[in-house]
Amino acid sequence: MFVSIKLRKAGCAVMILTLIVSALAAVFIPSEATAQEREGIKVPIIMYHSILKNEEMWGDYVLSPIELEKDIVYLKNNGYEAVFVSQLIDYVENGKELPEKPVILSFDDGSYNNLTYVLPLLKKYGFKATFSVVGKYSEVACEDADPSPGYSYLDWKDIKKLMESGYIEIANHSYDMHSLDGRRGSLMNSGESYEDYRQAFYNDAFKTQHLLEDNCGFTPDVYTYPYGLICDASRHLVKSCGFKASLGVEEKMNYICRGDSDCLYEMYRYNRTAFESTEDFMKRLLG
Q1: pTM across the whole model
Q2: CA dist., res. 139 & res. 153, Å (int)
Q3: Secondary structure of 215-277 as H, E, C letters
Q4: What are the backbone dihedrals phi and psi of residue 109, each rounded to the nearest 5 degrees, phi first?
Q5: What pLDDT digit, counting tens, does each position of 27-60 carry?
Q6: Which long-range contacts (CB under 8 A, 24 or more apart) does 38-42 make?
Q7: pLDDT of 178-217, one tens digit each?
């Protein structure tokens, strides 16, 4: 009888201890959803440029259509769904949902071969992409009567066609700041006053905005820094221009949080070169 009472008391003590541990765990160990809300949704962004079949051109900023297709197939087979930057904006500002494993494919500079090779692959696999166009390049492209995937850029009718496809969104990649001669990207020049720089930045960014509005019927919400060159003044001016997001070039993972608009600026991107296999690149990108 005495032994039985002792056992019952021991059992009660274990039960009480278990309840205490469970309660403490609920307080101090966040659920997966809570942790995700605190840290944000992981969004890898891949930065592509030109897509060409000519093997002699492959390098830091030129990839083959075959390798691009391998990338898309890898992502699709591993449960990733391509989204627009505008969907991230909707998630942050309006609480709209994102897929479980979002990824962004971005293509810089507005090469004509993006229309030739990228759009058909996006349609084939149901993926989306963000194309960043340089206003001056597109303006000059309108004079090209026989565009070539090797060297031409998208003109206004090409951009409009891409937008109307539903697979592409367009970002502003400056009008004439995509250069390292004189001004380096959208950086301030040495000795330049803030007022002079502000006027130069506004003139450049809004020129592309107005050209896209006049010729294609829309204005982008996303600014892509030329060469990823950023300064404190440009950070402020991108926001004051009304851009809701911006793209940089630092290779890190993005964590997108509801209600935190700052996480949408200078988003990180991994440059896709021709020197890595799809498997090696994706392991580096996705972990």
Answers
A1: 0.86
A2: 9
A3: HHCCCCCEEECHHHCCCHHHHHHHHHCCCCEEECCCCCCEEECCCCHHHHCCECCEECCCCCC
A4: 90, -20
A5: 344 444 444 445 799 999 999 999 999 999 999 9
A6: 39/255, 39/257, 40/254, 40/255, 40/256, 40/257, 40/260, 40/263, 41/91, 41/98, 41/102, 41/255, 41/256, 41/257, 42/253, 42/254, 42/255
A7: 999 889 999 999 999 999 999 999 999 999 999 999 999 9
